[in-house]
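Many introductory courses stop at the sequence. We go one step further.
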Amino acid sequence: MAQAKGLLAPLTKAECLANPTWPPATGLALILPFLVFSTLACGGNDPDDSTGTTGATAPGNGATGTAATGNAATSGATTSNATMGVSDSTSSAAGGASTASGTTTDVTSDAGSGGNTTTSNITGSTTGAGGGGGSIDDLPETDCTVSVMTSEIAEIATVGVVTFSADLPAISRAEVQFGKDESYGLAAPVDLGATDYRTLLLGMTENSSYNYRVAVSDGSQVCYGDNQTIETGSLDVDGLDDVNVGEGTPSGFIVTSRGGDVIIFNEAGELVWGYPFGGRLFSAQMSWDGQTMIGRDVGPFDAANGGTFRRMGMDGSGAMALDAPGGDHHDFAPIPGGIAYLAKTAAGDCDQIFIASDAITDGEPLVDTWEIFQYFSEPEGMGGGQGELCHANRIHYIADAELFTVSDRNKDALAVFDRAGAPVTSIGSTPSGGWTQHIQAEGTGSDWRVQHGHHFYAEDKLLVFSNNGSSGSAMLHYTINGGSAALDWSYADAGQSMTQGDVQHLPNGTFLVTASNAGMMHLIDAQQNLISSYSAGGEGGGTLGGFGYAWFRTTLYGPPPSRP
């Protein structure tokens, strides 16, 4: 997609004179319908004009894309331009793209162990677990020889490792199709730059026999290797205590932690991956390219250093503990090329968003969340703040909008920053004067009281896990309209959780709510009817028991979902 002038870059004065109605009426001009920025529209301040004040204008007319005049949003010592737009995304995938639509995407993929980085054209999965399956089977079949060189179980006893060779000329795509019978159903995309096409089979259950075959294509035809079998073993982690799965449960996987273990289970509640990292894990997620599992402990609440990341390949190789710069704690988010994580640079400071490569130990601050959170005070009698200026506890990266969202437990508020670190907006309780880019949410201070998990699952839809609302812990559903957010409904039946807790909208329109301390996940429909439940057992309802943060993925290959 060619980037339109003004969606990702400010206009000059001359361009504004020539285009007085810019930006055009398009949803791409806005990240969220309640925000329009001076850098996106004429009538704002020219960044080259030394007499003007650069900054984000007050909310404008989202329907027409016309900016309203308003006060610049000054954040602390800096006044920033929030230049935002939806850009073409180039994903780094573990041999495949994680697109649920099944469309073809050019992907720069990092090879597995022993492989080289390559750029390949890979089609997103149309299977529940897949990454790379679907349309390759629609091609006409031809003859060729596919020889499996090695087939073994990795250090993670549910992960298969397959290498092969094929004599089809000009291979442009390949996948390993696998499943419990010869209808397969799952597909692992092959990184064509990996040595011997080394491919991991992810998503298999414990102590099971799986069939698999290799499919290779030159883009116009496909050929298949013979059917083979592989046997999985047992994982050294505990499974779920109780599972009830109902009709309407989407196919896919939930990545979470349980005590010191990272676990992944499928929609049936069956473990498909697990490893005992040790410690108390607060957050666990796969890296952006899908090749690595990363977990982190709760970390220090108010310190200049400390906290531990743990990382290993999805095949179980290279397990290590890592100390990232800063007093890192609570949570992180996979981003292209690395991670974003929460940390303090000194005791008594507000939390900052740090950016690190996959190495993690090279993290550097991107933005101090005080740029927004300085305008929010702790409600009287909040408690649990450990005397901190800020207490950030959950961070997400919205890839299609290039936004970070950060939750501060003690402010009853979320902050939004762009990929460059510029303050964008906030949502939640009422801020003090000086900050105009705010969305006031109904119920803050009562229904919304202390939050962790949250999910901007659409431009005007928000989920919040309220830990200590008037009716106890609950998932809150909001619709955003301009500068306000209406509370549509709440769901409190998953159980009480004084810490953590998570929420997510899933691709089929269902919702996943995780009451962490209660060790309970509920999958509900849009009418708040319970569909499925997954229990890990809490520790008497106490803190840090049960599940950690949880995130649903339709595939274990490639990037995580942006906005399901």
